[in-house]
Specification:
Elements (H helix, E strand, L loop, with lengths): L6 H17 L7 H6 L1 H10 L19 H13 L8 H10 L2 H13 L4 E4 L15 E5 L2 E8 L10 E7 L10 E7 L5 E6 L9 E12 L3 E2 L5 H12 L7 H14 L7 H25 L8 H23 L4 H10 L9 H12 L5
Parallel strand pairs: 1-4
Antiparallel strand pairs: 2-3, 3-7, 4-5, 5-8, 6-7
Length: 362
């Protein structure tokens, strides 16, 4: 494999580096300060021509090959800049399942950062087993009335819109009675309850309670009962490491830890270096497949497991090298513990791999 940039890619990388040299240090990269300014960072990236690189021009993107997103992720990590906001899975969900009218109405604001979004999937009793969700959407004239409770909803406190899953047919089989909606978060009947994480971050996740919130029927995404199809599109893209920008950051953290190590290298750091390099090469393989038009389906569960293993290996290395006294490094360890839960638990990913890739019985 030849991983070197093409002339066009090299020119893009150089232009990006020049721009980052002037702005990277002006934005926080972690903690509540990062989340508070993420929308501003999104808009700054877009105005400079570095956001929405691989998304359709019709909605404000540039329709470049996905390798440009990987270059962006790498250079953001190298420059010590915040990561790009993670919206690709929502854009894929709307792009594949919403009507042209809904796409034209909502995708431009999502891409350029003028409208903030959240994803209303997980519930207190329906996280890994998403099909058991109990939030309901009941038809009332031209609207649906929403009642229910979502949790671990990223950016819910600042979101203008939510891509929401709710049960529209309680009598249907549980995978069949779910529909998807674009719901306004700025309305009566929507209550926010922020969640403080053990790392000290208070503004990344929230609980959202819906008590009579309304959504117009024409803001249903797809047909009634097609919400599960959208959900599988969204989580499939959410689980691909090549779209998440993590690989470059893991490698940078390993190098930072190595620079702080005198004498013998701790076993945890050596293993983290192996794991980070494995993921870097895996991302490039997945990228090559994407460029060839390959879609991965349930193989996204393999990707998610690999990300989890690498994240937690690097987290353990941070703890071994820096201990608990370095707030940033200890925060990396604490955050890594969530990787085996968020985006689909490791146990669920193994079940998917067993059933849908290996063909094993239930």
């Amino acid at each position: 494999m030849d991983f070197r940039d093409s002339p066009e890619e090299a020119a893009f990388r150089e232009r990006l580096r020049d721009w980052l040299a002037g702005v990277a240090g002006t934005y926080p990269t972690s903690g509540d300060e990062y989340w508070a300014r993420q929308g501003e960072w999104h808009s700054e990236l877009y105005r400079a021509g570095f956001f929405g690189l691989s998304w359709p021009k019709e909605y404000g993107g540039q329709e470049l090959p996905p390798v440009y997103d990987v270059i962006l992720d790498e250079e953001l990590a190298i420059a010590g800049a915040p990561p790009r906001p993670s919206l690709g899975y929502l854009i894929q969900g709307l792009g594949h399942h919403a009507s042209p009218e809904l796409c034209r109405r909502f995708l431009p604001g999502m891409i350029d950062g003028s409208q903030r979004w959240c994803q209303g999937f997980s519930e207190p009793g329906a996280g890994s087993d998403l099909a058991s969700l109990t939030t309901t959407a009941t038809r009332d004239g031209d609207d649906y009335i929403i009642h229910g409770h979502k949790i671990w909803t990223s950016y819910s406190d600042v979101a203008d819109w939510c891509l929401l899953l709710a049960r529209t047919d309680p009598a249907a089989p549980r995978h069949k009675g779910i529909s998807a909606f674009v719901l306004s978060m700025k309305q009566p009947g929507v209550e926010q309850r922020p969640l403080e994480m053990m790392s000290g971050v208070t503004t990344e996740f929230g609980q959202v309670l819906f008590d009579g919130a309304r959504v117009p029927a024409d803001q249903m995404v797809g047909a009634p009962g097609e919400g599960w199809k959208l959900a599988m599109t969204v989580v499939g893209h959410e689980r691909e490491p090549s779209t998440l920008g993590y690989a470059a950051r893991y490698g940078k953290l390993v190098r930072q830890l190595a620079a702080r190590t005198d004498g013998a290298v701790p076993d945890e750091l050596a293993w983290a270096a192996v794991q980070a390099e494995m993921l870097r090469l895996h991302v490039r393989r997945r990228l090559s497949e994407q460029l060839d038009g390959v879609t991965h389906g349930p193989q996204g569960s393999l990707d998610k497991l690999l990300m989890t293993w690498v994240d937690q290996s690097v987290g353990h290395a941070a703890l071994a090298v820096a201990g608990t006294g370095d707030q940033e490094m200890f925060g990396s360890y604490l955050y890594s513990r969530a990787q085996s839960v968020m985006g689909g638990t490791s146990q669920i990913q193994k079940n998917i791999i067993a059933a849908r890739i290996l063909g094993l019985g239930a």
